[in-house]
Automatic annotation (TrEMBL):
Pfam families per the UniProt record, alphabetical: XdhC_C, XdhC_CoxI
The name this protein goes by in its record: XdhC family protein
Domain XdhC- CoxI, first and last residues per copy: 15-83
InterPro entries referenced in this protein's UniProt entry, alphabetically: MoCofactor_Util/Proc (IPR052698), XdhC_CoxI (IPR003777), XdhC_Rossmann_dom (IPR027051)
Domain of life per record: Bacteria
The XdhC Rossmann domain, residue ranges: 165-306
Amino acid sequence: MDSIDLEVLKTAINWSQSGAYTILATVVRTWGSAPRPVGSMMVMRGDGHVRGSISGGCIEDDLIRQIRSGEYRATAPQTLTYGISADEAHRFGLPCGGTLQIVLECVTDQSHLPALLKSVSQQGLMTRELDMHTGAVTLTAGAHAVSLSFDERHLVTVHGPRYRLIIVGAAQLSRYVASMAQSLDYEVIVCDPREEYLDEWDIEGVQLSREMPDDLILELELDSHSAVLTLTHDPKLDDMALLEALKSPAFYVGAIGSRRNNARRRERLALFDITEAEIDRLHGPVGMYLGARTPPEIAISILAEMTAIRNGVPVLQSHALRPHPAAPAEAGCALA
């Protein structure tokens, strides 16, 4: 579940609990080219206010018109299809004649959204099933579908667990990485036993730990929705964290440092109880090659690489690229 979906759930709960007529829209099928993928969600209030997106704007505008005018005030789940004809595709701005099918459901207490949000926020995995005839919702722990299934009678969606990012080190670069990662809705944990760094931390919403990084990583029991970044430049902290992270199911493990320093790091790691295949999982120098120089630019390069890997997009490691003549190989922390 990405940050937009969590924002939609939170908003749907707040609007519904305030007594406002609230509709949750979910993309259940697409044909041809579609602006948003299956599973995308949007919430709409009775006065036309929206959060999230199902088409990029055009279908939202049509639904806003229907709800504001009172044309749509259903309380039972409904299915709407946009873009069947070429005229409709043109009218609603669907690219290349694409077709989009959505399910609309009125948000009530029986929608069980607070329980769903609580589960996802606590790293849980939950399956939600909506009965299209009765509007009844059933929540069950675990994944009981691949992602989303819809057979006209039941809409089944899988939610969670939330992605986590563990950052080792609380210096300047970590602040930019943490802040940007929060906007991508990672649960961010910053670990640094050095009081002179952690005591100055002032970014809200980030969990702080003074434990030794390897102890924390073992305690967290990392899963495939976890990422680890070591950013201290101190082998006593970074290497011990990497030893545990590389043996975990974490989808991304990265370490800052130059090509030379990362080669030395790999040599040090090989002296411990860790396999060559596990060492090969290390992303270092960390980040996608962007010619980054400043801490914000380096943070962007790191999160760009994490996003590509999370989405299954092949990434050519920065250490495999030949630097531009104007950019020395050891310049910038994404390379350096």
